[in-house]
Amino acid sequence: MNIHEYQAKELLAKFGVGIPAGIPALTVEEAVAAAKRLPGPLYVVKAQIHAGGRGKGKFKELGPDAKGGVRLAKSIDEVEAFAKEMLGNTLVTIQTGEAGKQVNRLYVTDGVDIAKEYYLSMVVDRATGRVALIVSTEGGMDIEEVAHSTPEKITTIVIDPAEGFMPHHGRAVAFALKLKGDLNKQAQVISKQLYEAFVALDCAMLEINPLVETADGNLLVLDTKMSFDSNALYRHPDVVALRDETEEDPAEIEASKYDLAYIKLDGDIGCMVNGAGLAMATMDIIKLNGMFPANFLDVGGGATTEKVTAAFKIILSDPAVKGILVNIFGGIMKCDVIAEGIIAAAKEVNLSVPLVVRLEGTNVELGKELMAKSGLPIVSADNLGDAAAKIVAEVKKAA
Ligand code: ADP
Ligand code: MG
C-alpha cells in the first residue's frame, strides 16, 4: 500500500526527522489558507498523487509548455494560480503511464533554499533478507539517469534487522554523502531516524529524494515516497486509515471486496487461476507460447460461483483482454461445481472473447461434460501446455 507525500512526512516527523512545514489542501481556497499559515515568502505547491516524477511531469490539459506538478510560488497569488492549474487536471509523469493521474489533493509547503540535493532510500532486499539503505550525492529529479549511467555514484549499505542500525551505518551514510562537520553528524542522526521509522512502520520502501542540505546548513527531507508491507498492515490501523482508494486501480479494489488477489498486467490474456503458484505457472506458460498475461488473478481455495462471476467481470472490465484462460485445480472444490460456476458466470457476463478452461482434480470428467453440454463456446484443455497453446491459438484466430 502507498500513501501520499504529505502523509509520509507527517509519519516521519513523529520520528524526529526534519521536514519543511506544510499543509495539505483539497481546494483552491484551502491552498490559499494553507499558504497564509506558512512563513513565506517562498511556497511550493505540490500535486499529491501516488507517483513520482511530478516535478518533470506534464498536465494533459495544459499543453506541452506548462510546468509540472511541483511549483515554486513567490506569493500567495501564485499559490492560488498554481492550485487552480493543478486541481482536477491530469498529471502524466514517467511513473504514471500515459493515462496519468488526476490531481485531487495538493500539499502547500515552505520553500527551502537548497544548497545541495542528496538521495536516500531503503528497501527490504529479498535476496539478502536485509534492509538495503541506498544513498547518493546526486539526488534530485535525475536519479534514474544517475543509476543508469553512473552507478558508481550510488552506495548501498546493508543493515541486518537483527542487529539494527549501528553507529557505523550512520557513519557510512555520512561518508558516502561526503558530508563534513555538523552536516556529517546530522546525516548520521537522520539516517538512524529514517531506519527506525522504516522498521517501526513495516515499510516495504522508503525513498527520500531529495534529502537536501539547506543554505543555512540543515539536512531536511523534501520529498518522500513510502509504501508498506501489506501483510503487516493489520498491525497499523493508523496507516490503513491513510489509504486513498482514488489512487488505486478500481479493478483491484473490486477484487479485494471478493477476497480475490488481482493484479493488472500489460498483456492480452486474462487468467483465472486458483493458488498463487499455479497462477505464476499459468502466466509463465502463456509467455512461453508467445503472448502475455493481462493479469494475475488468484481466486483462492474456495472458488464459489459468486467469486468466479466476480472474477470474470473484473477480467472483462479490462479492454485489453482478448481471451481468457481458466486454470483451476479442483481439490477442495469439486470440478463439476467449478464448471457450473464458470458456465453461470459466462452466461451472466455475456462472454465476448474466447475462453479456454483447464480443469483438473475431483470429478473432472463430470465438469468437462457440463461445459461441453452448456452450449457455450468453451474450449476445454487437458493440461497446462495444451491450455496455453489453445488460448493463444483462439485469440489469434479471433483477431
Ligand atoms: P518529484 O520527485 O515527484 O518530482 P519533489 O518533491 O522531489 O517531486 O520535487 C521536485 C524538485 O522540486 C525537488 O528535487 C526540488 O528541487 C524541488 N522542491 C521540492 N520541494 C521543495 C521545497 N519545499 N522547496 C524548494 N524546492 C523544492
Ligand atoms: Mg522527488
TrEMBL record:
Domain ATP-grasp: 9-241
Cofactor binding note of this UniProt entry: Binds 1 Mg(2+) ion per subunit.
Stretches assigned to coiled coil: none
Annotated substrate binding sites: 274, 331-333
PANTHER family referenced in this protein's UniProt entry, alphabetically: SUCCINATE--COA LIGASE [GDP-FORMING] SUBUNIT BETA, MITOCHONDRIAL, SUCCINYL-COA SYNTHETASE BETA CHAIN
Reactions catalysed, as given in the entry: succinate + ATP + CoA = succinyl-CoA + ADP + phosphate; GTP + succinate + CoA = succinyl-CoA + GDP + phosphate
Pfam families per the UniProt record, alphabetical: ATP-grasp_2, Ligase_CoA
Name of the protein in its database record: Succinate--CoA ligase [ADP-forming] subunit beta
Organism encoding this protein: Novosphingobium bradum
HAMAP family associated with the record: Succ_CoA_beta
